[in-house]
Amino acid sequence: MITEIITAVISGSLALLSDAGHMLSDIGAIAIALWAARLTRRRPQGSWTWGWKRAEIMSAAVNGVTLLVVAILVGIEAVRRLVTPPAVGGGLVMVIAAVGVVVNVAVAWLVARANRRSLNVEGAYQHILTDLFGFIGTLVAGLVIVTTGWTRADAIASLIICGLMLRAAWSLLSQTGRILMEVAPASLDLDEVRHHLMDLDHVRSVHDLHAWTVSSDLPALSAHIVVEDSCFADGHAPILLAQIQQCLSGHFDLDHSTLQLEPPRHAGTENQTM
Asked: SUPFAM superfamilies annotated for this entry (predicted)?
C-alpha cells in the first residue's frame, strides 16, 4: 500500500492511488474479520444467549460499507480526470501493477481455501479479489499509456475498479441486510417446510412459522404445530416431536428449531402471526 501511494504520487496515476485506498480498506477488512472470528467463538452467557455469533455479520456489513465509500470517492475523482486528464507515467504504473497482481493472486488463493460459507471470511475475500482485478485493470491501463500515450486509460481503469468495488459491496450488504432484518434464508422455502410438516401423521396445521439466520452457518426456525389430541393422551407427542426435528434437519439442514406442539382447542387462546 505504501509503495502504491509513493508510486501514485510520482507517476500521477489515480488507478494506483485508488487501489492503495482500497488496500487500506483491505487491511481494515482483514483485521475486522480476525477480530470477529475470535468473538464468534465466545460461549453464550447472561443476556448474550447467542454468544457473539452476530459479530460475523456485523463485520461483513462494515466491509461492505467501506467498499462502498471508497468506490464513491474514487469514482468522483476518476470522472474529474476523464474531463481534464493529467500526465501519467505508464511504465512505472505497469511495474507496480504487475507486482500487485502476483501478490494478490497468492493471497486470493490462500483465502479461497478458507471456509467462505462464513460471510465474515467472504467479506475479506471479496476485498482481496477486487484488489486483484483492480491491479489487472491498472496493468492494462499502464500498457495503453505506454503504447499510445492515452492517459485517460488511467481514469477508466479507476472507474472499472469502482464498479468492482460496488459489485462486491452490493453482494455483502444485500446478504448481511437479509440476516440483520431476519429474513428467511434465501435457500429455504417456507411453503415447502410447511408441506413437509403437514405430511407427517397426526399433524393438523402449522402456524407462527418463522425462519431466520443467526450467523451464516446457523439458520434457525420456530413454529407452532397443531397435533391431534390423542398425541397428548397416549404419550405420542415426544415421538412426533423427534420426527419433526428429524424432518427439519434431514430435509432442510435446520439443526436449531424451537417447536410448540398444541392441541386443536389451543388455537383460540393465541394471536397467530403466520
From this structure: Cation efflux protein cytoplasmic domain-like (SSF160240), Cation efflux protein transmembrane domain-like (SSF161111)
Query: pLDDT tens-digit profile of 124-158?
Result: 787 788 888 888 888 998 899 899 989 889 889 88
Half-sphere exposure of 261 (CA within 13 A, CB side): 20
Q: Each residue of 176-208: b (16+ CB within 10 Å) or e?
A: bebbeeeebbeebebeebbebbeeeebbeebbe
At 19 the pLDDT is 75
Distance CA 200, CA 73 (A): 56
C-alpha cell at 248: 427439519
What is the spatial distance between Cα 68 and Cα 163, in angstroms, rounded to a whole number? 10
In this structure, are residues 127 and 168 in contact, taking their beta carbons and an 8 Å threshold? yes
4-41 tens-digit pLDDT? 888 888 888 887 887 787 777 777 777 877 887 788 88
Interior/surface letters 70-109, b for 16+ CB within 10 angstroms, e for the rest = bbeebbebbeebeeebeebbbebbbebbeebbeebeebbe
**Which amino acid makes up residue 138?**
T
Distance CA 59, CA 265 (A): 46
Q: What is the pLDDT of residues 229-261, one digit of tens each?
A: 999 888 889 999 999 999 999 999 998 999 999
Average pLDDT, the chain: 85
